[in-house]
Structures are given as structure tokens and as C-alpha cells.
């Protein structure tokens, strides 16, 4: 029987929609999903094996439902790296920050409620909103991809969303958000509803600027979300977390699945946290490589958005086929970058020095081809 999605009784708002999907192509240099290019160091791999072996002995039992040891260590990491004191009660963890965001939307949004983000930004904010039955509003940005505070606060006042997403540094543009901007949007959101403001700091360890974590103090409607997928080089682990007022942590308990975070995940994340200093050393190398990409792309005559993340947005491609044609030409030279659908722009993730050289060689060859 030939049956496709359209023949199934799925929810109306999912009809005709596409799933999230960065192409996973088998090419020599993949710089398209903002992963950390460095495999975990061998001593950490050994430590993971040890901790997972230990966890395996009790896999007949459900894991610690509240992930107390892990949340305590995540809180210690946040306190140490930001100087802002948080503890177990402020931190919640789940399978990737995507799951954290989903739990927040399930708790604070859902059918009949609205979320807003300022686009271009992380497409999953809109997709997870849709998946939880939340209406999505695409708010504006300035031409330089900073948030247009006047337009954003006006949009919040007009739509009165239940959840406001602020991504800092922003994906795909790399733009960091000023604390004053977050505060202005927070005030607007409280005046309009009040609503939950989620600051997505997936890339903050790569930023030139400090984390916005301290803003959660005395602001119970402000949440900061984080991930071990980027700075910790552990995208395959699936571990994200949030920091907020303890009441927010209590609230997400209402929707989390029981035992959502496996004992293997908790053990692996704890092992990675023991090696924080080594992993943050790789972050320093990646920041230097990110800055090199910005400098070299600008020297080649590209427009490059200032980046506080482990990737760089470059353009502008206005010719025939626009950015997508250039994406294909770079791919033809064995390097996969990302076309996020932002007209005129592409995004490249900072890889190892060798991978970045391969990318720069590809765009140099492209420039040569265009000028001949
Ligand atoms: C801004 C932003 N937030 C969250 C995520 C999701 O990360 P995780 O792997 O923790 O689900 C990403 C992943 O690319 C991202 O770009």
C-alpha cells in the first residue's frame, strides 16, 4: 500500500512542513553544523569508559531522575566561568538544549499561546514552537543583524507573546546581544504579558563578551540555556541545560518525561566536566581560527558579519542563483558550508587549521574564477 504523510491523520499545522535537516553529505571537509572539530582527548575517552562501566553495573535500575550530581557540577561550571553564583536548584538538564527548549515551550507556551524570535536566528526555535502547538512570530533585525530594539519591543507589545527567544551569540549570524537589549526586551515582555524570556547561549564560550547569566538574578522570568554540544565538543552526547530561578526548574518538572536523562548520558557528561579545562583550551584555539577566518575572508573582499561564535557568516552573494550557487561551488571543491536560506549569505563553521585552509583555498579559487 502506497501511503505518504499526507494520507495520515497528522495535525493540520504539520501538513506540508519540512523537518529540520542540515545536509549530512560525505565530503572531505564538513563545516556546516557548528560542531567542534576536535575529537575528545584520549584521557577523557578513557574516563568516559570508566564512568560508563560503573553506570552499566546498575542499568537494571532507572537513573537518578533529578540528575543531582550532574546538575551540581553544571552549576559549579557556570559559577566558575561566569562569576555568577548558581546552585543545583537553579540548573536543569536534558537531552540537548533542544530538549530544554522543548520543555520550556511545553511548560510556558503550547496551543493558544505564542513565541517570538528575531530572525534570521536558530530555526529550531520556530520548529520546536510548532511541534508544541505554539504559534510562531518572526520578529525583525537590523541590516547588520543586531536586534532592532525599537521594532522588537513594538512587536512584543503588539503580539504579547508567552515566550521570547533571544539567541546570543546568534546563529547563523554570530552576533552577540548587549545586556541592555536583553533588559529592554525583558521589560517589554513583562509589561505586555508577562512572558518567559529565553536567552539561548549555545555558543557563549566562543564569545568576546561575558555571559548574560547574571541577568537571571531577581528576574524569575529569564532563563539562560546552554549546551555541551559546542564548547565541550560533545554534540553526540546530547546534553543541554538551563539556569534560572528555582521556580522555573520546578515548573519544567511538570512536563519532563520520567527518567529522561539516561544513566549513561549522566556518567558521560560528568566525565566531560572533569576535563573542562582541556576542552576550554580547544575553545581558545577555535576562537583564534574563527578570527582568522573573519580576517582572511575580509581580505578576499567578502562582507563578513562580526562573529562571537564558532562560525562566520559571509557574503554578499547577489549574482545568479545567489548564495546557493556559491554554496554548490564550494561543495564542488570538497568543502561543505551552510546555506541557511539567509538571502545573500553563507555560514562556515570554524574547523581545524587544515580544514579552514581547505575552505579558504576553495573560496580563493572561486574569487580567481570570477575575476578571470
Ligand atoms: C542557537 C542554538 N541553540 C541550540 C542548539 C541546539 O543544541 P543541542 O545540541 O544542545 O540540542 C543549537 C545547535 O546548533 C543552536 O545553534
Fraction in helix: 40-55%
Q: Got a strand count?
A: 12
By DSSP (H or I, 4+ residues per run), the number of helices equals: 11
What value does the Rg take, in angstroms?
21 Å
Q: What form results from the Cα inertia axes?
A: globular
Q: Unreliable stretches, pLDDT < 50, 5 or more residues?
A: none
- Reading off the top of the CATH hierarchy, the class of the largest domain is best stated as Alpha Beta
Which CATH architecture of the largest domain would you pick? 3-Layer(aba) Sandwich
- CA distance, first residue to last residue: 55 Å
**Strand order, largest beta sheet:** 2-8-7-6-5-3-4
Q: How many discrete domains? A: 2
Strand content: 5-15%
Task: Quickly give the structural class.
Answer: alpha/beta
Give the bound compounds.
pyridoxal-5'-phosphate
Look up the CATH topology of the largest domain: Aspartate Aminotransferase, domain 2
Largest sheet: 7 strands, mixed
What is the averaged pLDDT score? 96
- CATH superfamily label of the largest domain: Type I PLP-dependent aspartate aminotransferase-like (Major domain)
The string of secondary-structure elements, in order, is: EHHEHEHEHEHEEEHHHEEHEEH
Amino acid at each position: 500500500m502506497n501511503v505518504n504523510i499526507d494520507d495520515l491523520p497528522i495535525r493540520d499545522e504539520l501538513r506540508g512542513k519540512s523537518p529540520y535537516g542540515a545536509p549530512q553529505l560525505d565530503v572531505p571537509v564538513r563545516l556546516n553544523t557548528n560542531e567542534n572539530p576536535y575529537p575528545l582527548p584520549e584521557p577523557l575517552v578513557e574516563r568516559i569508559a570508566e564512568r560508563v562501566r560503573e553506570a552499566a553495573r546498575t542499568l537494571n535500575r532507572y537513573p537518578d531522575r533529578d540528575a543531582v550530581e550532574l546538575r551540581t557540577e553544571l552549576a559549579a561550571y557556570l559559577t566558575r566561568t561566569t562569576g555568577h553564583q548558581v546552585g543545583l536548584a537553579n540548573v536543569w538538564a536534558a537531552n540537548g538544549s533542544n530538549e530544554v527548549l522543548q520543555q520550556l515551550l511545553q511548560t510556558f507556551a503550547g496551543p493558544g499561546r505564542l513565541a517570538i524570535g528575531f530572525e534570521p536566528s536558530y530555526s529550531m526555535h520556530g520548529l520546536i514552537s510548532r511541534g508544541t502547538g505554539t504559534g510562531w512570530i518572526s520578529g525583525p533585525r537590523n541590516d547588520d543583524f543586531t536586534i532592532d530594539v525599537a521594532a522588537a519591543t513594538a512587536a512584543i507589545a503588539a503580539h504579547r507573546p508567552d515566550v521570547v527567544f533571544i539567541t546570543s551569540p546568534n546563529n547563523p549570524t554570530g552576533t552577540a546581544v548587549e545586556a541592555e537589549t536583553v533588559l529592554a526586551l525583558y521589560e517589554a515582555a513583562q509589561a505586555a504579558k508577562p512572558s518567559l524570556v529565553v536567552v539561548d547561549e549555545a555558543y557563549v564560550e566562543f564569545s568576546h563578551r561575558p555571559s548574560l547569566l547574571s541577568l537571571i538574578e531577581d528576574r524569575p522570568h529569564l532563563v539562560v540555556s546552554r549546551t555541551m554540544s559546542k564548547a565541550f565538543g560533545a554534540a553526540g552526547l546530547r546534553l543541554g541545560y538551563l539556569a534560572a530561578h528555582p521556580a522555573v526548574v520546578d515548573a519544567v518538572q511538570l512536563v519532563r518525561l520520567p527518567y529522561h536523562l539516561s544513566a549513561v548520558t549522566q556518567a558521560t557528561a560528568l566525565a566531560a566536566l572533569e576535563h573542562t579545562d582541556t576542552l576550554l583550551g580547544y575553545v581558545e584555539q577555535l576562537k583564534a581560527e574563527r578570527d582568522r577566518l573573519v580576517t582572511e575572508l575580509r581580505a578576499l573582499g567578502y562582507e563578513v558579519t562580526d562573529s562571537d561564535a564558532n562560525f562566520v557568516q559571509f557574503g554578499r552573494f547577489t549574482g545568479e542563483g545567489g548564495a546557493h550557487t556559491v554554496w554548490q561551488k564550494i561543495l564542488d571543491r570538497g568543502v561543505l558550508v551552510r546555506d541557511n536560506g539567509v538571502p545573500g549569505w553563507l555560514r562556515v563553521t570554524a574547523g581545524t587549521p587544515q580544514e579552514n585552509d581547505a575552505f579558504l583555498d576553495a573560496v580563493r579559487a572561486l574569487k580567481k574564477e570570477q575575476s578571470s
